[in-house]
Design a protein that fits this description.
Layout (H helix, E strand, L loop, with lengths): L16 H15 L6 H8 L3 H4 L6 H14 L10 H18 L5 H4 L5 H17 L4 H22 L11 H6 L4 H10 L4 H21 L1
Helix pairs in contact: 1-4, 5-7, 5-11, 7-8, 8-11
Amino acid sequence: MTGRRGRPPREAGSLSRERILREALALVDEEGLDAVSMRKLARRLGVDPMSLYNHVDGKDALLDGIAEVLLAAIPAPPPDADLRETMSALAHGFRAAMLGHSRAAPLVLTRRLASMTALAPVEAVLAPLLAAGFPPDRAVHGLRTVLAFLIGTLMREVDAAPTFSGGPRLAELEGAGLPAVSAAAPFLAVCDHEAEFEFGLRVLLDALGAMAGA
């Protein structure tokens, strides 16, 4: 009797949570979030689907794990950096991590994560604000403002939120009959994501720096 065609399943012992998450992220990068299933991931790994459950509890836990991988890719700020340097490094690191895996980024930007996964970026932003002298209540306000800016601007960059994007839209804007919109139409009709990010970040850091000094 001939053997079963295709790659034979590997032993479940060769699996690890890290390997599963790495392969799951690769699957998302290639095919998008809708393609993720435990069965499909098992085929990529060459294992029985049930063996995955020894390392992840199910699809929701798998998606949370992919988000963890993205968040873990954000480098730590330079040691002894001041508030502005620290927050700038965190913001640029966050953006790079999300854009490096743009098809997986909505897991961080739009999905409610398990509590411990979600607390990592909270700690990363909150700690430097407290160290800069913000009282806890204002540090939380600062935290939420920073996260709102990062999530909002990155959602637009990974096409999870609407934006003006050229084409016939320019003529519509110029003919809208609204003076301010018409004057700004050439700039509303396009979006330079990097310039938008840097502008918004500069405004945010200036404001935080002024409040810390006060």
